[in-house]
Amino acid sequence: MVGLGLAAASHVHGYQGCPGCELIAVCDLDEQRARRFAAQHSVPLVYTSFREMLANDDILAVGITTPTFLHAPMALQALEAGKHVHCEKPFCVSVPEGLEVCEAARRSGATLAVGETYVFLSSHMKARELIEAGEIGRPVQIRERHGGWIERKQPRIDTGPADRTWRVNPVQSGGGEHPWIFDHAVHFFAAAEDLMLGQPIVEVYAVGGGRPGRTRAGATHDPYTSAEAGIPIITWKHRDESCHGVWMRAERLNGIYDYMRGFSTTILGESGVVEVLGEGGGNLFWDGRPQHLILHRDGKETCCFRFEEGGDAVWDSEISYYSQAHIRQVRHFVDCILRNEKPRYGGEDGVRAVQATLAAIRSAREQRPIRVD
Ligand SMILES: NC(=O)c1ccc[n+]([C@@H]2O[C@H](COP(=O)([O-])OP(=O)(O)OC[C@H]3O[C@@H](n4cnc5c(N)ncnc54)[C@H](O)[C@@H]3O)[C@@H](O)[C@H]2O)c1
Q: What is the distance in A from the centroid of ligand 1 to the CA of 210?
């Protein structure tokens, strides 16, 4: 594992205890951090140089959880050193560098998976299963809502180093003047394509120029202390242009607060609707009871689902995001290597999400719809 901050604190639980997998080395520029992490998780080898770690032939696969600008260069180096790669989102900061990594994976024949928690969230996975089973008919519209999150008073994992200013550095975070959107919109587009059964997004329109309202302090582990002006709403069309989506943002970092809390997704089909509680979520009710997923169908009784996973490690949320989605995506990566199967979310998927995100940023700047290709 390389980059031992917030994401790594969840990934480690995925690698450890995963049949067929042994976590033998960790790497971080901060040696003290690396040594502490290794001691805490009983990892035998500690590196401060990624290059040196890659030279170890006992290492067959690498998990990359470094700041975003390092993802594609490190993934490329690891593939060239003959390793399988799991790389956190956003997969790359530009489309060409992402495609270069995909090409390297094709050449080496290694497994290349991109960490996309929104695809591996229990509630989203159940939604996908129901949609695939035809429960709501053809999915035609997706609505994603990004509301305020509440952190746990005591996070159950290490929420990362004190200095995380790379997240607001326009180059290191990716996305230029929109680092938050760049970091997050890849999730929203990934979820939309997944829940639209793989239909790519072809056009996006972002409402830009919004003036932030009263800024509230950000999440404790986030450096986004000032509201990022603009992009409160994004709309898009899928390849079948009768299918479209919208994402709406109202949470403390944007200066507006949605008391509905957390992330939620609604997928409308031709004969039904799925409502999903997502990351950091609360407040999805049916008949006065809190639910995690609600399935409405024409002429049939409404069904409700709950996923009892012990809550999240970082957010005050029953939906287990850091605890389960991160772990599940890493275990899926290991399974894909062992079974020689294609990952559910791979390099090309990661590039498409970045491409749609860059189109959204350009759309906000130019105030017109932008074709993703
Ligand atoms: N899917 C999710 O929900 C999710 C959540 C958190 C982070 N992420 C992604 O994971 C990535 C990491 O984010 P984070 O919040 O964990 O970051 P972080 O700042 O908490 O940790 C990054 C770590 O990388 C180390 N590092 C930096 N440069 C390095 C180098 N050259 N070699 C080795 N180590 C190096 C830093 O010292 C630090 O310990 C980001 O791209 C982020 O978008 C995804």
A: 29
